[in-house]
Structures are given as C-alpha cells and as structure tokens.
Write a structure and sequence with these properties.
The chain is mostly helical and 115 residues long. The protein is built from three helices and no strands. Helix 1 packs antiparallel against helix 2, helix 1 crosses helix 3 and helix 2 runs antiparallel to helix 3. The longest helix has 33 residues. The radius of gyration is 20 Å and the shape is elongated.
C-alpha cells in the first residue's frame, strides 16, 4: 500500500508527480494572461465607446501591474544585489510597452468606431 501524501501521488493523466504541479502552475499562468487580454480588450472597447484618453493610461497601468506581479521576486532580488538603477529602467520600459499596447488597442477601437 502506498503511504505517500496525496499531493505526491501522480494522477492517472500524468507520467510523474511533477506533472501534476506543472499543470497547476500553468493554470495560474493562463489566468494571468487572461487578465492581460481583458485589459487590452478594455482599452479597445474604451476607444470604441469614445472614452477620454485617460483610458489608455488605465490600461497601461493594469498591464504594467500584471508584469510587476509576475516578476516582483526578480526585481526584489536585483535590488538586494545593488542593481536598483537597472530595475528602474526595466520597470520604465515595461510601462512604456504597456502604454504602447494599450494605446494601440485604443486606437484600433477608435478606427472601428469610425468605420
């Protein structure tokens, strides 16, 4: 009889106990990606609805916050090692990328409204 804890016993679907943990981790990553897509969709719908330009900033803040939440351990570790200026640059570039993504989605929403 197998006396290992239930968490360590492999399911019938997986080849090893690590596969079950991998599938749980991939579900969490899938959820974060879904939230990012919803933020981009929200920016596009804001452009389609004709909301003011602050909606671009709201979408960019949402995307940059998701990026920070995903990588905050790396940022903390780099700060501890003395690379705080590098971390600041990475965060600014991440926000700039989020701003471009949200602005592009907003612009496409405006284009769809005009058409």
């Amino acid at each position: 009889m197998d006396r290992r804890p239930q968490a360590l016993i492999a399911s019938r679907d997986s080849d090893s106990p690590g596969m079950a943990a991998t599938s749980r981790a991939s579900v969490a990553a899938w959820g974060r990606k879904l939230i990012a897509y919803i933020a981009i969709l929200g920016s596009a719908l804001a452009g389609y609805a004709g909301l003011p330009l602050w909606a671009i900033a709201a979408g960019a803040i949402a995307l940059a916050s998701l990026s920070y939440a995903e990588h905050h351990r790396l940022y903390d570790r780099a700060n501890e090692m003395g690379f705080s200026s590098l971390v600041d640059g990475v965060l600014l570039r991440s926000f700039a990328n989020a701003l471009v993504a949200a602005g592009g989605a907003y612009g496409l929403g405006v284009v769809l409204r005009v058409i």
